[in-house]
Amino acid sequence: MELASGDPAPAINADASNGRTVTFADYPDKYIVLFFYPKNDTPGCTREACTFRDFIAKLTGLGATILGCSPDDLRSHDRFISKYDLPFVLLSDPDHRTALDYGVWKEKNMYGRKIIGVERSTFLISPDQKIVRIWRRVKVEGHIDEIIDELKMLV
Q: Which residues have a catalytic role annotated?
């Protein structure tokens, strides 16, 4: 069954770029913008991460914390963060456990070939760990505006 707004958010317990194992308890009283992306340092994923970077002050001003999640390992995350000066935590999901829990590990069509991978998706999670909003098959252009608009309605 696919997750929907109002559902409890699946727990996260992932190794993170901050050197810790991250859980929701690390972010009390915060909305969490959890974005899933396929791969570090690829064109769409870089644009998406840099957009979150560029709007971090606006998002945190609305009470949100940003967490990115991909199958990349922590070393790859460290390089990605360094290269693009990303001011948020990236979660490493090499076994796809978190992606599976959130229903974003899917069959995709890439240049006419079917592959299994992360469907670019964003989940807005409330401080009480309920899903407020889900964006699936995210197009990077304009996505940040949708998130900001949603947060503005909540605060």
A: 45
